[in-house]
């Protein structure tokens, strides 16, 4: 599914984002995260071994909510699948996201020994509000 232009523009801003994955028992797991796009897909950067990554390895279905930072009542829900996962460029990507969201280098909250992963998400359904 093609991402609408207004969603792509929002994904390129420091917009609040939540990603839902599915736990082994079928319950949802929700994480606030930074978000990005390559213009075709939604990109999320995570840490190897975190619950979100473990859930996606087992079941690639996700739901993402991205809110407009200027108007939180305006948001998009994206349902889709993780179609790619790579460590290539993961550290550089989190640095770029940190510049976008914090305006500063990434503070490496969990330590510099973490392996960063870029998740590529293909949208199957998009719903916009506001």
Largest sheet: 7 strands, antiparallel
- Any idea what the CATH architecture is? Roll
Low-confidence sequence ranges: none
Count up the domains: 1
Backbone structural class: alpha+beta
Radius of gyration: 14 Å
Number of strands: 7
Taken in chain order, the helices and strands follow as: HEEEEHEEHE
Tags for this model:
130 residues; seven-stranded antiparallel β-sheet; 3 helices; alpha+beta; Pnp Oxidase, Chain A; globular; 7 strands; 45% strand
Q: If you had to describe this structure to a student in words, what would you say it looks like?
A:
InterPro entries: F420-binding_dom_put (IPR019920), F420H2_bilvrd_red/Heme_oxyg (IPR052019), Pyridox_Oxase_N (IPR011576), Split_barrel_FMN-bd (IPR012349). GO terms for molecular function: coenzyme F420 binding; oxidoreductase activity, acting on the CH-CH group of donors. By secondary structure, the chain is of the alpha+beta class. It is 22% helix and 45% strand. It has a 7-stranded antiparallel sheet with strand order 2-1-5-6-7-4-3. The mean pLDDT is 96.
């Amino acid at each position: 599914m093609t991402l609408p232009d207004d969603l792509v523009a929002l994904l390129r801003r420091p917009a609040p984002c939540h990603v839902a994955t599915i736990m082994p028992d079928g319950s949802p797991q929700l994480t606030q995260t930074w978000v990005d796009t390559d213009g075709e897909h939604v990109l999320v950067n995570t840490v190897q071994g975190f619950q979100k990554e473990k859930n996606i390895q087992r079941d690639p279905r996700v739901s993402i909510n991205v809110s407009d930072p200027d108007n939180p009542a305006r948001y998009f829900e994206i349902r889709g699948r993780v179609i790619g996962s790579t460590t290539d460029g993961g550290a550089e990507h989190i640095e770029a996201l940190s510049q976008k969201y914090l305006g500063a280098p990434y503070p490496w909250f969990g330590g510099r020994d973490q392996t960063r992963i870029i998740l590529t998400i293909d949208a199957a359904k998009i719903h916009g509000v506001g």
